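note to self: dont lose this again. the chain is below, predicted strucutre after it. 155 aa total, dont forget to put it in the shared folder this time
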Amino acid sequence: LAIMSISNDSDDFQLINERLLKNSTELGKLLSPLYSDAIAQKFTQLMKEHILITIKIIRLIKNGDNYFYLDRELHKNIDNISMLLNSINNNWNKNSIQKLLYEHITLMKDEIFSIVSNDYNKSMVLFDDMVSQIMLVSDAFYSGIVEQFPGKFKR
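---
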């Protein structure tokens, strides 16, 4: 939604941005009961940074400006997310999480370029790919939690 909103200069951007940032908070809250409030807050902070950097990248690409310095920031953010997750759960291998998240941002950037260039057929294919890929990320997170805390989950 954010890509479309920014690309089309829609009035709904503030609402979408607030929802994306709320998602970060909700994801962090999921970690709190299993790890700690401090870990949850750090994860929330990193996810909010991820979203804010991504929004800046969308704007730069839309305007045809150089976004590469922010792309480095986004990769550093992913590295920090991967290190944090690995530090709290050995089942979340840092390199595996990095790879999954790098794949996600590659698809996202391809999606931004397709929308900005009005290639909506490509955009639809990429959206499906992004959904499938983020499901892999979700599965990896879920599996890591279940493996670390098997007594808390029924199989």
